[in-house]
Amino acid sequence: MKLWVRAFQGLAVASVVLGGVLSGSLVASVATATGVFAQASSIVVQGNRRVEADTIRSYFRVNGQEKLDAAKIDEGLKALYATGLFQDVRISQSGGRLVVTVVEAQVINRVAFEGNKRVKDDQLTAEVQSKPRGSLSRPTVQSDVQRIVDIYRHNGRFDIRVEPKIIELPNNRVDLIFEITEGNKTTVRRINFVGNRAFSDTRLKDVIKTSQSGLLSFLKTTNIFDADRVEADRDLLRRFYLSKGYADVRVVSAVTEFDPSEKGFIITYTVDEGDLYRFGAIDVQSSVRDINPEALRAKMKTVAGGVYNAEAIEKSTEDMTIEMSKRGYPFAQVRPRGDRNYENHTINIVYAIEEGSRAYIERINLRGNTRTRDYVIRREFDIAEGDAYNKVLVDRAERRLKNLGYFKTVKITNEPGSAPDRIALNVDVEEQSTGEFSVSGGYSTTAGALGEVSVGERNLLGKGQYAKISVQYGQYQKGAEFNFVEPYFLDYRVAAGLDVFARQTTANSFQSFGTESVGFGTRFGLPLREDLSTYVRYSIYSQNVQLDPALLVCQPNVTCASIAIREASLTGEVLTSLVGYGLTYNTLDNNKAPTNGLIADFKQDIAGVGGDVNFIRSTFDARYYHEIWGDIVGFVRGQAGYLSPWGGKELRLLDNFFGGPNLVRGFAPNGFGPRDLTPGTTMDNVGGTMYWAATLEFQSPIPNLPKDFGMKLALFADAGSVWDYRSQTVFPQLNNASIQLADSNSVRSSVGAGLIWDSPFGPLRFDYAVALTKQSYDVVQQFRFGGGTKF
After folding, report:
1. How far apart are CA 502 and CA 449, in angstroms?
2. H/E element, 316
3. For residue range 308-329, what is the model confidence (pLDDT) as tens digits?
4. Which strands sit side by side in the sheet containing 422-431, from one edge to the other?
């Protein structure tokens, strides 16, 4: 009976051994069943050529004269297989000794890739686990095949095939060759939306990153199918609806189907929008002693009666948390609570301030940043090691890192630290290319044909610095420019920039003179809030007016340049040295293609810190965007400027404001404003010291036109004026001649239509405007075109 029990126990032990080592396990089990035990000193190793016998014995973990039982034999067997050094291991007993017979794994001589054109060898080598001089493992090779397949699928090639080939060599060595058939890129043929009532398919396609293939798809990559991008688009759709008042929205599914007939994917997003909600009552309640809720109301971005906006709630929560940290409450947490009224479709919001659990950040681990320096990542955190843990500030750091554009992915997770009140943060990033090289060209009715070559780097040497060199050469403009920005000057959140430039313009149909400018400037920018920033700058540059000698001297029946132009050309180079500052307020939902929000910019420059001219120049520019209905976006723009001399010096011609299509479309460049009407001259615009302009415009996608064409129709109305010439009126170098000045503050206005094309060749715009009110000496230009390309 005891013999049967021991045999059953031996078989039970054998059952835990890996399936791939069945033969050796059975031998060990039989040894146990027969009651034979071996000592560690009597282990005999056979078949080994590279691995020492003592090394193999060491895997059977016994000491001295300790005997081996079945469990320890099986553990040693598993450990030998786990090393990856052996193809086969067999264990038997002979004369009271344990015999371990091994067949060593082949050694990889080299790992090579054949057929890969779209992915470089270096990238594949970094991904595969099979390495030269390592042991050949079939499971590892199969895992490497899957890794290679995943790399190609992330690049949109789902037709990828990878076949590993093993070439036998002498001395138990092999060459491992991965033969790759890349196939063609798999694109997205159609994107469908089901259940959307409030927003059209076209509007929702603008929200997501994935685009469908079209006529010019070869110039972009967002139409390549990427399963990860599709999932990310689901979250973008959800966040979009939550910011537009649809608090119950659900993106039910994102179904991807491969259509063999179209040789591409069809993506269908199913959306359950729910009802539109507005904010009801909004309150702040605090359970933390000494925190006055009323003092935090100024940080709220939510307004009672406004359309529900989850992003505004998130921003309010973040600003309140930061404010409490500044006031000495690092563990206080803000938890927004919503109370829906389903009948009135309102949501009451209560920002509940509570004392959070006391936890400290023990360490911040950075992983995956092979190029970007550690401090570039750490400086985006408003908290450091040793500080109180605050999830809101951690989420804020994650958003900042994503917005840098240095990384393809950013993910911050936490894990327990060395004590219950300690937390470790893990920051996992994936680097992406940050270099830029572009060759661009374009044409506009203002600047003529223009070409540009530029080289830039957004993460210079991994230090987070920006540098760019560009050279322009065009029909009416030439120049070169160098820009450098250090975003954290002296380790403060202050952006310091340096600009060096040289520009030249030539005479054209809109002005009889050219200019040359050479100089440099420095600037310092400081964010005051997420939506408000300020900057100061200093610039010094020399300018001179270039004039054709034929236009310098007036003769009978020969047109010459305006008196002010001739005087400026005779003056020669003029040095301008100025300091300035600015304030920018930006709440746009998208800086490239805004649909809601306000951006306002105020600038003021003071010239006279050395140099030859003294003036104070103030300008203001504001644009407000709002979705009118469906895909129709309306915006209102207001502009104004004022220029005044000081210190007893007169203004130069080139410092003045000039009216043109930048203010009121339908007018030529330098088309309106104060003008020299002296007979026999070119009657140039001489500029003014005051201006204002207003614009009302509506933009809408062209109905029934695929979104991929990127075309929009615009209807607009402009109005504005430039007046108050305060420069020289009597010119000593021209025998005290004086100009016959036409200067009026009358309103110039126009209406028109435009075609906007966000083409793969670059942004293009065509405008046709008709001037409604103007002066007799103004110059009109009904058609205006501008655009270019980069490749």
Report:
1. 19
2. helix 310-326
3. 999 889 888 888 888 887 777 7
4. 360-367, 422-431, 407-416
